[in-house]
DNA sequence: TATTGTTATACTCTATAACTATA
DNA sequence: TATAGTTATAGAGTATAACAATA
């Protein structure tokens, strides 16, 4: 197929990681679609689940989303009744972005989608292979100095 | 950090694959930039290296790029003197897209960038771990029914 | 009538800068 | 003077449809 000395793309670790990664990201977007949640709103909901009542600036810094873009994300979540902009106790300029009851109820469903996707993707692996893969991916991620839990796609927009 | 029962994102195989995959794809774009080559033009050059003189329609089907978008890709490569539109021997409607001498000379450089990236990404792994990872990724890719060598990002545009 | 390549248009998304209100 | 949030605008990138030439 390819010329002499040119390695096939599907034998390249970076290509496979990129191919799988983009496919998985797209698939996850599709899974979230029925819940009216996108990658950015999902990330905000998860950040609030970990630490509720953060300001938009805190969320921006934590998730790598620009503060201008964060406005539309919170608008969207507020329109869907999943979060509320409450007055910030320490700073009258800022809002305390807070999960509503509806937002909180949605979290287990979103988490279930993540688990379902993981099961599907690793269906062709044994439990042991799954553990090995997880370790190798974590090693690479740490070796590249990537921030745990911060997705590059979010920072782009 | 997260609520009870909610697994951290960096312990999820799909998240890690997506995080690494998108990062790697972005990094590869940066590596190709000095050569004036983007992901789509790169894909076309590789396809021509494997099989020169394909029509735009053949390239479209093989790479998952829409035929309308393919026009701009070939325009770009032609402007840079890397390929030429020659008359197709079998069909007067079609062009035989052909590598020029300059395009052919560029291939080893592009391949070297891929190798360099692979070395960098797997720097924190042993040779054995690298082999294991490659096998696991190929298993997953095949298990998901993905076409070898076809990158989902290309089909999006 | 179907297909190859092309062009034009509209649509989405993103990035940048400028504005307000508080600190 | 600096910061939190907002808004508006321009730019890039993408998708869709319609077109001319040939099969």
Concise account of the structure shown:
2 copies of one chain form a homodimer. Chain A is mainly α and 157 residues long.
Helix content of chain A: 55-70%
Query: In percent terms, what proportion of residues of chain A is strand?
Result: 5-15%
Tell me how many strands of chain A there are: 2
Count of discrete alpha- or pi-helical segments spanning 4 or more residues of chain A: 7
Provide the structure class of chain A. Answer: mainly alpha
The H/E string of chain A reads HHHHEEHHH
Shape of chain A: elongated
Distance between the termini of chain A: 38 Å
Low-confidence stretches of chain A: 1-5
Most extensive interface: A-B, 63 and 63 residues
Mean pLDDT of chain A: 90
Quaternary structure annotation: homodimer
Q: How does the major sheet of chain A shape up?
A: 2 strands, antiparallel
Radius of gyration of chain A using CA atoms only: 19 Å
Strand order of the largest sheet of chain A: 1-2
Account of the 3D structure:
- 2 copies of one chain form a homodimer.
- Chain A is mainly alpha-helical.
- Helix content of chain A is 61%, strand content 6%.
- The first copy, chain A, contains 7 helices and 2 strands.
- The first copy, chain A, has helices spanning 13-32, 39-50, 56-63, 67-79, 101-121, 127-143, 152-156, and strands at 83-87, 95-99.
- The first copy, chain A, has a two-stranded antiparallel sheet with strand order 1-2.
- In chain A, strand 1 and strand 2 form a beta hairpin.
- Residues 1-5 of chain A have low confidence and may be disordered.
- Chains A and B meet through helix 1, helix 2, helix 5 and helix 6 of A and helix 1, helix 2, helix 5 and helix 6 of B.
- Chain A binds a DNA duplex (23 and 23 nucleotides) through helix 4.
